[in-house]
Structures are given as C-alpha cells and as structure tokens.
Design goal:
By secondary structure, the chain is of the alpha+beta class. It has eight helices and five strands; from the N terminus they run H-E-E-H-E-E-E-H-H-H-H-H-H.
Amino acid sequence: MTAALFNQFARLTEFLGRILGPYYEIALHDLKDPEHSLIAIANSHVSGRAIGAPLTEAAVKFMQDDSFSASDYRLNYTGFTAGGKTLRSSTFLIREQGKPVGMLCINFDDSKFKAVSESVLKLCHPDAFVDSNFKFDEARVVEKGVDEYAERFSPDSVSGAIARFMAERGPGAPPLSAAQRRRLLNRLDQEGFFRMKGAVQEAAAVLGVSQATVYRTLSQAREEQ
C-alpha cells in the first residue's frame, strides 16, 4: 500500500471510529505483511488488538478462496475475540491498480444491544421469560382423591391424543386458535391425560407453546367448570 493510499484510509479509519462510536472497531490492514498487517485501528478495545497484529484467519481464507472475485466486500460474518466475545464483522478489499493491497474491516460488538432487545421482547412476549422463571407445583394439578402416581394403562399418549384431535379437523386445517387449544387441553384433562407425569411438558412440545401456557389454560378451564 502506497503512502498516499495509507494516509487516505488511515483518516477514513479514524473518521468511521468517531462517527460510529465505541462499539465499532475499524481496522486497516496492509496485505504486504500478513504477519504484522494491522497498520491503523480505531476503538481497539473491542478486540484488544494493537498495531502490528496479524491478519485474521478469516481474512487469509478470503484471499485464498478468492472470495473477492465477485465483490470487493464481505458483510456480517461472525468474528471472535481472543476473550471469546462474538462480533459482527464486515471487510472491504482495498485495491491499487487492480491489485489487492489492503483491507478495511469493521467489527461490531452488538452484545449489549442484543441484551437490551431481549429484555424488551420479554416485555412484549412474556412466555419465554416465564418458561425460565416460573415454578409450578404439579401435584396441585391432580384432582383431589386421585393418586398422584396413578398409572394410565392405555395404548394412547398425549401426543397420540393430540394427533387424533388434529386428524378430526381434516387435512389442510389452519393452526389451532387459542379457543381451540383450550378446548383440546380441556378434553385431554377430562380424559385424565394430565394425571400422568410429564404430560404437560409433552403437550407443550407437541402444540408448540410454553408449559406455562398449558398450565394457565388448564387452570382457566377448570375455573370455568
């Protein structure tokens, strides 16, 4: 990379680092010396690298497999720091007279943004949060007077009963509505399936809902009765 080209991209590295902010690392590499290719970097705390660091394994692979033959950039591939942090990385190939001479890489640490988005989604869709934080005494689901460890001798299972119900609706039927799911769970409850250990977990897995949803639906149906 010539001095003029280096000066231009070094200023661009600093500019992008200031504009994008502390969660974006901007790294400029000179391909002439892969073992000490890093010649300019902004927000180096993201990866912990310093000037003189080698070209990454991904960058070396890009050059070896001719990844830049169709385009001069690669977007949003996964990168990992020495400390195990996951980054979202993109690389732009710098050419001089048609020859690859350098790379400008942007590594985005989006871990904090993912944590915030997950917290927000839990406010909108609490079932996933309830699954990991909800405790329920399964013994209280069993009706009084029924042995908690009663064994059901039947060729059918929760999965089989649900399959029967779905077959009754006919081929091409739309997914179950909340009301239909409630009727199905109430029917399984009346037939005694939820006296079996693990039945709630099995029903939740087959129906594609959380165990908390099954428990809530059963409680609502029993209160209505």
